[in-house]
Amino acid sequence: MRSPFSPERRRFLKCSALAGAALIFPGLLAACSTSRRAVARPAGEWLEWPLERRIAQMLMLGFTGETAPEDSPVAVAIRDYGIGGVVLFDNNSDLQVTNRNITGPAQLKSLTRRLNSYAGIPLLISVDQEGGIVTRLKERYGFPPSLSAGYLGNKDDPELTRSHSEEMASTLREFGFTLNLAPVVDLNSNPANPIIALKERSFSADAERVAAHAAEFVKGHRERGIATCLKHFPGHGSSRDDSHLGLVDVTAYWTRDELIPYRRLIEQGLCDMVMTAHTFNSRLDGDYPATLSRATIDGILRGELGFDGVVLSDDLNMAAIVNHYSYETAVEKAINAGVDILVVANDKLYDPDTAPRTIEMLMKMVAAGRMDEKRINQACGRIMALKARYLYG
After folding, report:
1. For position 5, what pLDDT does the model report?
2. Does the CA dihedral 42-44-48-54 come out positive or negative?
């Protein structure tokens, strides 16, 4: 992996991360070979980390391969740069995603243990385990079967949703995950929607039913110690197109009912994280899609709905973003809009230098005044608070 930092700077960052971890999380280094850490909760010492280290916590990266050797790019990104999280995938022929991370139970457990062993600060190890079609731990690989949100919503049995969620979360915990990028709280408002309705990812067209089942999903995961993420804000269910393939304009179709599930779960304290949608809505922002829109994230999600937790982007490599914005522009606009974690799945064109390249880019933005260091601290603080809740003790 090429690095924009000198060997001396990299050694300093690595040593400062390990020393800081030992101070903030006593007993962490002794426990680093396990998938769960019994360590103390963090104080505010992360504010004393080098800027590079605070920025690194804002990165959640995908990578290639079923293993993570010591010299692999993902090992270097975790160990030497201190990225905050990773996202694991299985192969997906529909999206031309190959050479990924999940092929079987023993392999997966070995991989997550190895990833954790590189971390000075415990990782958010995440996966899209929604159930049904969008499932990375598939039955054909030897994992338990799962039910789709569409099936659960049609049954409309909150106890079934809760029990299924607990079983799913138990499986995730067993295999080393700490974050499920679910549930989907999009409304099933367009039955022909190619990315939501036709994949049975939505609980219902009724906003209150979506909110009720999403609440049981979150509670079931919390019962097993797994964080969750509501998606795709401010709503992808009314779209006619797939944002994996291009920019999706929902201006003519989106309604404010799509905010109801977020409002309900935020009010109940059941919202750990929110993932943004790469959808464009000129009624909310005439210039940018939601992921890059300050009016949408800071204005609606944080201001109107009162959410002050972690916001993460959908994959910045999706065509809805890369076909219209440079990576640098997307990173700058997303963070200044209120995104705390940048997700780069690295699924089709793998860039092993994503971590150092993005860290250097953001450092230059701060130095040039294009981004306030307080914004970095705000994001890092939210991330560390989430980790304190789920990854320690």
Report:
1. 54
2. positive
H or E element: which one contains 109? helix 105-117
Catalytic residue at 128? no
Q: Which residues contact 90 (CB under 8 A, 6 or more apart)?
A: 100, 101, 102, 103, 136, 137, 138, 141
Query: Which two three-digit tokens encode residue 229?
Result: 């993420």
Written as six digits, the tokens of 125 are 């190890």
Per-residue pLDDT at 283: 96
Residues 6+ apart with CB under 8 A from 374: none
Global pTM value? 0.90
Catalytic residue among 314, 315, 340, 347: 314
pLDDT at 6: 52
Query: What does DSSP say about strands 248-249 and 134-135: parallel, antiparallel, or unpaired?
Result: unpaired
Q: Please tell me the predicted confidence (pLDDT) of residue 10.
A: 53
Domains of the chain: 7-390 (3.20.20.300)
Measured at the CA of 286, the angle between CA 341 and CA 374, to 5 degrees, comes to 35
Closest CA to 66 of 132, 114, 124: 114
Look at residue 14 in the predicted model and tell me its pLDDT.
53
Q: Which of 221, 232, 244, 278 is catalytic?
A: 244
Q: Quote the tokens at residue 269.
A: 């304290």
Residue 90 has a pLDDT of 95
Q: Report which residue type is found at 110.
A: S
Query: Is residue 213 flagged as an active site residue?
Result: no
What residue ranges of the chain have pLDDT lower than 50?
Answer: 1-2, 12, 16-41, 43
